[in-house]
């Protein structure tokens, strides 16, 4: 049996939360407005009858004119109110759904997200959810409004003449069959539409964010090709849809409007054999053949409805992604332990196998290893961006899966190799949604060696960061990210050390900032340059999918070949720098 929760309209109403009341009120208004459709038809019928029977007076004309005007005005008022209420409810619902999805995404493992492209998620959050507005603000109230009128008129016609009223319904099953066929076709083709749109969005995101690279390698025409292919596919899909849906739409309109073809000969026959009066004949010849045209606006409904349901299904798909929930308090002690961990991103190739590591509370450890050996993966597992496939990771003796995810994030600061700045003020970029005062933010920025620079900006801490942080150099961005982590003051610090961003002066400032940041914390640093080892108590070598050596610099240097080699290389490089500079005191 189909679960009630699977019903897309019920789901939409649930997502609308408190705004559901506006949606229900809008449907009620649409219904009442629809009831008043009958006024104009009754007015015209009464006038026709009076004229044909020669009893028409000024009172009858005025009375029916008032009836038609007033019912039309009331109908419009209720339909207008229905529109206002449905839009208020619909945009409230859209807001709730978007918030639910973004909050949900924050608790989803990166593994689940890796399978989706950013364009795909953007399409759901933007275009697909926007389609829900169609359903809530238009489709549902319009369906009620445009169906109520014809139903009321049909009931009225039944009171006048049952056989003719029933004959007037003949086109209806045909048009509903057509609408059903269009709905079925649209539901089938929509996954291709969504895929093409998601691809289109991904290409745009890639094109804009990779603009520097595109320019540097003169890739304009090549990437434009990708761009134009995506546009072409979009165009192809929608052309195909119009080709397939145009004929049924035309048939829908023609069949609805051809009621006269039935009503005139059949009504005429009834009139000639004396079973109906002339006014009843005219009523059916005119109104009885036209009233179904009231549902003409519904021709778009099947396509819109299919799109809305597709939007619901895709939003539900994201909301169904498993999230980290439950779990207890963050432990008092912050020692970190990896026990025999196995991890693979794709389920096929193991990045880590039987990997173990212990970092004591308050200890600083540097992860050293060749590129691609799994250093960043280790810190992503400790931060629970992904879950291990075998083994366990413990903090303070507690498996991180048993720690409340938000508490884990609260107590861990991560400084990424590539600092990401949001399009907001410098102040907000440091306090990241928190409520720290400017004084506290400045104190953190001072420790991160970036306060002087921020104060030299035209608007100081209120300076807006340009898109993708483009106003700041790599080193400045790095120090802003360090200021963020200093302000957060979490007991565990994970640092994917950046070197590319730093020129020598910047590096001195970054090193000082990192030193301040690390003070009194349990720290894991991914050491891309060996110089970082000097600020740590221990070094651990990541190679062959595991940690092969761990200990003080001297201990690891004694036992590990890789470490001996890179240390030698590091020293030679320093000697070259020493010779080039001719300085007396380069620190060894
Ligand atoms: N999201 C991902 N999906 C699939 N594979 C990944 C992902 N991230 C990393 N990898 C792969 O996992 C392996 C380890 O990558 P990782 O980034 O942990 O190495 P690293 O030691 O930090 O490298 P580097 O020093 O160059 O930053 C690499 O082979 C990499 O290609």
UniProtKB/TrEMBL annotation:
One GO CC term, this protein: plasma membrane
Domain called ABC transmembrane type-1: residue spans: 24-307
InterPro entries registered for this protein in UniProt: AAA+_ATPase, ABC1_TM_dom, ABC1_TM_sf, ABC_transporter-like_ATP-bd, ABC_transporter-like_CS, P-loop_NTPase, Type_1_exporter
TM stretches of this protein: 21-44, 50-74, 140-158, 164-186, 249-270, 276-293
Superkingdom per UniProt: Bacteria
A Pfam family of this chain: ABC_tran
PROSITE patterns linked to this entry: ABC_TM1F (PS50929), ABC_TRANSPORTER_1 (PS00211), ABC_TRANSPORTER_2 (PS50893)
UniProt GO MF annotations: ABC-type transporter activity; ATP binding; ATP hydrolysis activity
Gene3D superfamilies reported in the protein's UniProt record: ABC transporter type 1, transmembrane domain, P-loop containing nucleotide triphosphate hydrolases
Record-linked SMART domains: AAA
Main location: membrane
This protein's UniProt keywords: ATP-binding, Cell membrane, Membrane, Nucleotide-binding, Transmembrane, Transmembrane helix, Transport
Span of the signal peptide: none
Record's bilayer topology term: Multi-pass membrane protein
Subcellular location: Cell membrane
Domain ABC transporter residues, every copy: 336-569
Full protein name: ATP-binding cassette, subfamily B
Species in which this protein is naturally found: Sporobacter termitidis DSM 10068
């Amino acid at each position: 049996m189909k679960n009630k929760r699977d019903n897309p309209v019920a789901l939409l109403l649930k997502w609308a939360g408190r705004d559901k009341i506006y949606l229900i009120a809008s449907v009620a208004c649409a219904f009442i407005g629809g009831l008043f459709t009958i006024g104009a038809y009754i007015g015209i019928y009464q006038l026709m009858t009076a004229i044909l029977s020669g009893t028409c007076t000024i009172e009858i004309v005025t009375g029916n004119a008032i009836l038609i005007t007033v019912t039309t005005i009331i109908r419009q008022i209720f339909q207008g109110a229905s529109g206002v209420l449905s839009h208020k409810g619909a945009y409230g619902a859209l807001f709730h759904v978007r918030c639910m999805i973004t909050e949900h995404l924050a608790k989803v493992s990166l593994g689940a997200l890796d399978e989706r492209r950013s364009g795909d998620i953007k399409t759901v959050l933007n275009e697909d959810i926007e389609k829900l507005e169609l359903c809530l603000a238009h489709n549902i109230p319009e369906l009620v409004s445009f169906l109520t009128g014809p139903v009321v008129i049909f009931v009225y016609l039944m009171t006048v003449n049952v056989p003719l009223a029933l004959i007037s319904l003949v086109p209806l099953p045909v048009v509903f069959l057509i609408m059903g066929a269009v709905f079925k076709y649209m539901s089938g083709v929509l996954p291709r539409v969504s895929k093409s749109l998601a691809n289109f969005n991904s290409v745009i995101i890639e094109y804009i964010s990779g603009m520097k690279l595109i320019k540097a390698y003169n890739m304009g025409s090549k990437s434009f090709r990708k761009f134009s292919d995506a546009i072409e596919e979009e165009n192809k899909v929608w052309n195909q849809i119009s080709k397939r849906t145009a004929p049924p739409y035309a048939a829908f309109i023609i069949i609805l409007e051809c009621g006269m073809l039935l009503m005139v000969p059949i009504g005429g026959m009834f009139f000639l054999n004396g079973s109906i009066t002339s006014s009843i004949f005219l009523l059916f010849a005119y109104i009885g053949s036209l009233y179904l045209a009231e549902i003409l606006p519904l021709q778009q409904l099947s396509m819109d409805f299919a799109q809305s349901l597709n939007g619901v299904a895709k939003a539900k798909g994201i909301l169904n992604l498993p999230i980290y929930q439950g779990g207890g308090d963050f432990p008092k002690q912050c020692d970190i332990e990896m026990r025999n961990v196995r991890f693979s991103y794709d389920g096929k190739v193991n990045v880590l196998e039987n990997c173990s590591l212990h970092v004591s509370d308050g200890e600083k450890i540097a992860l050293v290893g060749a590129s691609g050996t799994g250093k960043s993966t280790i810190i992503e597992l400790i931060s629970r961006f992904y879950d291990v496939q075998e083994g366990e990771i413990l903090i303070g003796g507690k498996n991180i899966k048993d720690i409340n995810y938000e508490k884990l994030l609260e107590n861990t600061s991560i400084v990424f190799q590539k600092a990401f700045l949001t399009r907001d003020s410098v102040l907000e970029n440091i306090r990241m949604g928190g409520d720290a005062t400017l004084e506290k933010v400045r104190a953190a920025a001072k420790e991160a060696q970036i306060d002087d620079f921020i104060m030299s900006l035209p608007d100081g801490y209120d300076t807006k960061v340009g898109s993708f942080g483009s106003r700041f150099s790599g080193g400045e961005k790095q120090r802003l990210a360090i200021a963020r982590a200093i302000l957060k003051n979490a007991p565990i610090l994970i640092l994917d050390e950046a070197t590319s961003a730093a020129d020598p002066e910047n590096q001195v400032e970054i090193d000082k900032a990192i030193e301040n940041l690390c003070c009194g914390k349990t720290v894991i640093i991914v050491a891309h340059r060996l110089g970082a080892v000097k600020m740590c108590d221990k070094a651990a070598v990541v190679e062959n999918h595991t940690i092969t050596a761990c200990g003080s610099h001297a201990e690891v240097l004694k036992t590990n070949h890789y470490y001996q080699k890179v240390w030698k290389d590091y020293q030679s490089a320093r000697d070259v720098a020493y010779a080039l500079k001719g300085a007396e005191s380069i620190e060894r």
